[in-house]
Amino acid sequence: MAPKYKAPRGTQDVLPEVSWRWQRVEAAFRDICRRYGYREIRTPILEDTELFVRGVGDGTELVSKQMYTFPDRSGRSLTLRAEGTAPVVRSVLEHNLAAQGQLQKLYYIAPIFRYERPQAGRYRQHTQLGVEAIGAPGPDIDAEIIALFQDFLDAIGLEGAVAHLSSIGCPECRPTFQQALRKFFEPVIAEMCDFCQARYETNPLRILDCKAPRDVELREGAPSALDHLCDDCRQHFDGVKAALDALSVAYEVDPTIVRGLDYYTRTAFEVVHPSLGAKDVIMGGGRYDGLAEMLGGPPTTGIGFGSGLERLLLVLEQAGGTGSQPVRKPLDVYVAAASLEARQPAFLLAGELRRTSVSAEVDYTKRSLKAQMKEAARLGARLVALLGEDELKAEAVTVRDMESGEQLSIPRTEAVQYLAARSAANAEVQE
Ligand SMILES: [Zn+2]
Ligand SMILES: [Zn+2]
User: Fold this and answer.
1) If you measure from the C-alpha of residue 176 to the centroid of ligand 1, how many angstroms do you get, rounded to a whole number?
2) Is there a smaller number of Cβ atoms within 10 Å at the N or the C end of the chain?
3) Distance from the alpha carbon of residue 197 to the mean position of ligand 1, in angstroms
């Protein structure tokens, strides 16, 4: 019979056979964050819809087409976490964490929900690894978080990734750049898509974000933000490059990186890996000095990145894997019951063993002793503690070494201590 229910389209179960890969990558990320002084923040999986409309930008594809938005039972509009930064900035503002210019270095590992066409490494629920440094104007911190990601890739053994770096300027210098863009697009804007035409006057930077193939062709040779930076932005950009050089982090200057929303400023970067082909971005980030104000807070600088864990795992696998599966520690003790009366005492002995940190297993399905011994072997138990009619009468436990076959009787009162000592000795030999 085919199962009636499946995980929703675009989502996946992470089964025990592969969850160790996730744990390994997550542990490496947590460790690198710890070294760089980033502390974990956990925000709700739900936010007010308005947070994303303001914090991501009205008129973006994400807000208009991809959010999981619904009214709750009181009619409030809520949205499943649609991106990582806005909730973190919301939380920092709500709890006044960045008051008096205090720098907040935060990281998160959290699911993100987007209604997109499912494809390899892209899910409607995906997991994002992210950091946000809030309250640091840069440029050192900009370079540092790129270095952090590079160290993380080194820690998980992924080679061949390249950081692409640009600056998109600030509200000071952006008008000149926008003017240059309008001038460039003026002769062709009539041939471009409705989206681009609508943004020609208000925000021509967004034209650089358009994915329509014809428009991608038409913007060949468009002016670069890097040629229109004001002195402060130029200095900031030079500072980021100098710090990256000092940290020996390789990067390519890439003026095609764009962030079309007003609150993005200066540093923008992506890390790409060739194994994913054209859609090769494994991390994207940048500075968002205008976001806190956009969300109703005081002016607060910020920079961060996000990296999709599923895509990282896909790239890792293509590039040689997450290493070998950790060897599962063998079971210390299987407690077998030879009679119906011994089942309860066996259950209790297993419980006592577990409380002394010994791993213990017991039969739950009233199997025969023979079947229990088979199960003990299947689980790789080092010792079997046998309880039957004779043992109960003698207030003893028969302990069998599964490797040597050697068997001896231990008083029940000493059994836990004895089994714990034997298990500890076994673990030592194994290591
Ligand atoms: Zn500027
Ligand atoms: Zn377009």
Assistant:
1) 10
2) N
3) 26
Flag the least confident range among 54-68, 242-256, 270-284.
270-284
Q: Write out the E strands in 147-203.
A: 162-167
Spatial distance between the Cα atoms of 243 and 261, rounded to a whole number of angstroms: 26
Q: From CA 382, how far away is CA 426, in angstroms rounded?
A: 8
Rounded CA separation 145/296 (Å):
26
Distance (Å) from CA 67 to ligand 2 centroid? 22
Q: What pTM value is reported for the model?
A: 0.89
Instruction: Report yes or no: 130 and 305 within 8 Å, Cβ to Cβ.
Output: yes
Instruction: Please give the residue that has the higher pLDDT: either 274 or 73.
Output: 73
**DSSP letters along 54-69, please?**
HHH-TTSHIIIII--E
- For residue 409, what are its two tokens? 């009787």
Å from CA of 23 to ligand 2 middle: 41
DSSP 16-45: HHHHHHHHHHHHHHHHHHHHTT-EE----S
Q: How far apart are CA 366 and CA 267, in angstroms?
A: 65
Compute the distance from residue 187 Cα to the ligand 2 centre, in Å. Answer: 15
* DSSP helix, strand, coil percent of the chain (3-state; round to 5): 45, 20, 35
Residue 276 clears pLDDT 80, i.e. is over it? no
Average pLDDT over residues 73-89: 97
The rounded distance, in Å, linking the Cα atoms of 343 and 364 is 9
Q: Do domains 16-173+229-318 and 333-426 have the same CATH topology?
A: no
For the domain 16-173+229-318, what is the CATH code?
Answer: 3.30.930.10
**What are the boundaries of each domain within the chain?**
16-173+229-318, 333-426
- Ligand sitting nearest the alpha carbon of 218: 2
In this structure, which residues have their CB less than 5 angstroms from ion ligand 2? 193, 195-196, 210, 212, 215
CA-CA distances (angstroms) from residue 216 to 180, 213, 219, 222, 414? 17, 5, 5, 10, 77
Angle among Cα 23, 111, 320 to the nearest 5 degrees reads 40
Residue 5: which H helix or E strand, with range?
A: none
> Three-state DSSP class for 78?
strand
- Determine the distance from the C-alpha atom of residue 355 to the mean position of all C-alpha atoms in its chain, rounded to a whole number: 33
Fold of 333-426: Rossmann fold (3.40.50)
